[in-house]
Specification:
Mean pLDDT: 88
Oligomer: single chain
Number of helices: 10
Order of helices and strands: HHEHHEHHEHHEHEH
Low-confidence stretches: 1-20, 228-235
Shape: globular
Length: 235
């Protein structure tokens, strides 16, 4: 009986470890496409790197939203936070970014991660990136409330609180809270910020993000390579 109990315990633990292990290989083609693009047209060094899930990927107006900064967009698919960490050696480290803006988390929660896991995955990303760049400023855009994922709002709010608290305890890590501007008086996502799928944003939604990111970049402009003359005041 004791041997059976030990065996069952081993099987449960083994299954748990196997189930927890994320599959990053699904994004390999996206990462290879980034690398091919980098070889064909090398991105600027010491730019501002935007990385994360499809809300970053669809941010097509980055260059015009931040015209005084060189920017690199490395958003891919419906990725989770830990996917960015898994590929950091290939789509973060080579650029030596002067600053990093991260968005991820709603896919994570949708896929079953807990708010604590999302916080821990962001912490792991910061640790991984700072192995090569100990002082690089990093900002996390809060997980957005969306029409398509209203059911996740309690988890989103908890994850944002946990990530905010963790960021406040770190050096040069910021939490940019876009959520308050994206909800109405009843705490529900504003419909006019989203495209038809209710998940991704339209220009009005992205404008709210710009309003949060721009001041943070201005505070870190001394570290960033900016597209302006030396006598021009950063935005």
């Amino acid at each position: 009986m004791k041997r059976l109990t030990i065996l069952l315990t081993f099987l449960v633990l083994s299954f748990g470890v196997h189930a927890k292990a994320p599959d990053h290989s699904q994004w390999e083609s996206d990462i290879q496409a980034f690398e091919a693009s980098d070889r064909a047209s090398p991105p600027p060094a010491h730019a501002v790197l935007f990385i994360g899930s499809s809300s970053i990927r669809f941010w097509k107006s980055l260059a015009s939203d931040f015209p005084n900064y060189r920017v690199i967009n490395r958003g891919f698919g419906g990725s989770d936070m830990d996917d960015a960490t898994a590929f950091a050696d290939r789509i973060v480290a080579p650029y030596k970014p002067a600053a990093i803006v991260v968005y991820a988390g709603d896919n994570d929660l949708q896929n079953g991660d807990t708010p604590e896991q999302v916080r821990d995955d962001f912490a792991a990303f910061v640790t991984k990136v700072r192995q090569g760049q100990p002082d690089v400023p990093i900002a996390f855009i809060s997980i957005k409330p969306s029409l398509a994922r209203v059911a996740l709002l309690p988890s989103i709010n908890m994850a944002n609180k946990l990530i905010s608290a963790w960021a406040m305890a770190q050096k040069n890590v910021a939490f940019l809270d876009v959520a308050p501007a994206m909800i109405d008086a009843q705490g529900q996502p504003k419909p006019d910020l989203f495209i038809g799928d209710g998940l991704h944003m339209n220009p009005k939604g992205y404008a709210l993000w710009v309003a949060q990111v721009r001041p943070w970049l201005a505070d870190h402009a001394t570290a960033a390579e900016v597209k302006q003359s030396p006598n021009t005041t950063p935005p």
